[in-house]
From TrEMBL:
Belongs to the NAD kinase family. GO terms for molecular function: ATP binding; NAD+ kinase activity. Keywords: ATP-binding, Kinase, Membrane, NAD, NADP, Nucleotide-binding, Transferase, Transmembrane, Transmembrane helix. The chain crosses the membrane at residues 12-34. It holds the Pfam family NAD_kinase_C. It is an enzyme of class 2 (transferase). This is NAD(+) kinase. The keyword NADP applies. It catalyses: NAD(+) + ATP = ADP + NADP(+) + H(+). Its EC number is 2.7.1.23.
């Protein structure tokens, strides 16, 4: 496990609220001092809040741009501390919904541990290499089943649904009702969904959402939605793999545990059956929950015009893959690839897929890459239709940084797309830099991580399905 991932795991265990309270007290005193000197403490107060709350990677921290988001909220903030800060707008402005929002909502804390028969489950084991007497041995390995144990009760659930599906809409309404009445949970949905629910019945006015038309998280990292993770204990997805990708893309930093229900055609990342949603959710809310920690890649587009490598656009996180291809051009793509500054190869063909192991069963598989268990850390380097007989796919270790450069003499631009979306043009001289992200996506398992993976390749792909050879016939004597 690399140090970034360790940090991510550690953040899961952090009790944000207690730190918030300390910071709150500090800034309360500071605000008194500053107000006496004519300064406004609000800005610095808010900056500190963002630092703690978002736990952003350094590259995405641009706190001065939050500007007028503080308007009218600082008072609320001072009274209730960080966890009660009203980071989301009230979509259904009913008194009950307001009361829920204003209530002190603490995020449920939980603990993640490696599970192994006979082990002390609380221990965090890492690969331990021993060199005793010159014999090199590996004493412990990280890729064990991870178990999540709630330390306090989850209070807030975000339900994300595939659009334009009647069955999903019906299930969503049933699930919201059940979670409210039987589990007493606060519920968030997307602005589109709240309109659907309210069109059905005013009963759903307790459901919360955020401002409609909120800009995409990729473009505005400091927008309200980018702090959703500090509010939500659990995310439920109703749809297919695309809905899980959608859910992951909403969280640019830490991701709450995701419970994916299958209502799509394929379900590699959606192990839960919607017919049993009550039992599934009941057991998950009680815990412990087996988790697959899915690695993500962080991608930076570096423009030729940039004066240095750090002058880039915001990182884009992908759960499946980033694809660099020829787009609508009919020319061969020409991409120079480097791994930690060592030249790897030039891709001449339709393009290149840099995939996570979760994405290994998606586009990378279709392009001839191996299927890899999602918890194996690494980056799949899979060419798309290479015009060379010897270009086999690679799997690179987790610690590398891959740079894909469009040569200055390229005949045409290349196009990057992220989990099959958000295409960006890469002109000659532009590059895409990609490495493992510090924020994995924890998805709940139906059985366990291995069982779910095998089930998905058997049921989803009919992997290695062949009639068993009959008993009769010639035998070895
Ligand atoms: N030739 C191909 O196989 C091809 C081409 C383009 C995109 N894709 C994949 O589609 C993904 C986007 O998915 P979407 O649902 O938003 O778009 P979509 O609606 O176009 O569906 C793509 C299909 O890929 C499946 N899929 C997605 N993630 C998967 C995973 N991790 N393992 C196995 N199957 C998976 C989905 O279930 C769906 O059936 C991209 O990330 C890319 O991997 C595949
Ligand atoms: N909440 C959402 N808002 C907007 N778009 C979404 C949302 N959820 C899913 N999508 C998009 O809708 C498309 C289809 O979603 P999804 O993959 O879940 O359904 P499916 O095609 O029925 O299932 P499968 O992927 O298993 O074939 C995807 O492109 C996905 O990105």
């Amino acid at each position: 496990m690399n140090s970034n991932q360790e940090r991510a795991y550690a953040n899961f265990e952090m009790n944000v609220c207690s730190i918030a309270w300390t910071v709150h007290c500090f800034f309360f005193l500071l605000s008194i001092v500053m107000s006496s000197t004519g300064c406004t403490a609000e800005t610095s107060h808010r900056e500190q809040y963002n630092d703690i709350d978002c736990q952003r990677p350094e590259t995405s921290t641009n706190l001065s741009g939050t500007g007028n988001q503080t308007n009218g909220k600082s008072e609320d903030f001072l009274v209730n501390g960080i966890c009660s800060h009203q980071i989301l707008q009230d979509g259904a402005a009913s008194p009950e919904a307001k009361a829920v929002q204003n209530r002190m909502m603490r995020k449920a804390s939980f603990k993640l541990s490696w599970w192994c028969k006979g082990d002390n489950g609380d221990q965090h084991k890492h690969d331990i290499v021993s060199f005793e007497k010159g014999n090199i041995t590996t004493a412990g390995r990280t890729s064990k089943q991870i178990s999540l144990k709630w330390e306090s009760n989850p209070q807030t659930v975000l339900i994300l649904t595939k659009p334009n599906s009647v069955s999903v809409r019906i299930l969503c309404a049933q699930m919201v009702r059940w979670l409210k009445e039987h589990q007493k949970l606060n519920i968030f949905v997307e602005p589109r969904v709240i309109s659907e629910l309210l069109a059905e019945s005013s009963y759903f006015s307790f459901v919360q959402t955020w401002k409609d038309g909120e800009p995409l998280i990729f473009e505005y990292p400091d927008s309200e939605i980018s702090r959703l993770h500090s509010k939500v204990d659990l995310v439920v997805t109703l749809g297919g793999d695309g809905t899980v990708l959608w859910a992951a893309s909403m969280f640019k930093g830490p991701v709450p545990p995701i419970v994916p229900f299958s209502l799509g055609s394929l379900g590699f990342m959606t192990p839960f059956h919607s017919e049993h949603y009550r039992d599934c959710l009941d057991s998950i809310l009680r815990g412990p929950v087996s988790i697959t920690l899915r690695h993500r890649l962080q991608c930076y587009v570096i423009r030729d015009a940039a004066k240095n490598e750090y002058e880039t656009e915001e990182p884009i996180l992908v759960l499946n893959e980033v694809t660099i291809d020829r787009g609508i051009s009919s020319y061969l793509t020409n991409l120079e690839c480097y791994c930690d500054n060592s030249f790897v190869t030039t891709v001449q063909g339709d393009g290149l897929i840099l995939s996570t192991t979760s994405g290994s069963t998606a586009y990378s598989l279709a392009a001839g890459g191996s299927m890899v268990h999602p918890q194996v850390p690494g980056i799949l380097f899979t060419p798309i239709c290479p015009h060379s007989l010897s270009f086999r796919p690679l799997i690179l270790p987790e610690n590398v940084t891959v740079r894909v450069q469009v040569p200055f003499n390229s005949r045409s631009p290349a196009w990057a797309s992220f989990d099959g979306k958000d295409r960006k043009q890469l002109a000659a001289g532009d590059a895409l830099v990609c490495s493992m992200a510090p924020w994995p996506v924890p998805t709940a398992c139906s059985a366990d991580s291995m069982g779910d993976f095998l089930r998905s390749i058997h049921e989803g792909l009919h992997w290695n399905l062949r009639k068993t050879q009959s008993f009769d016939g010639p035998r070895e004597s």
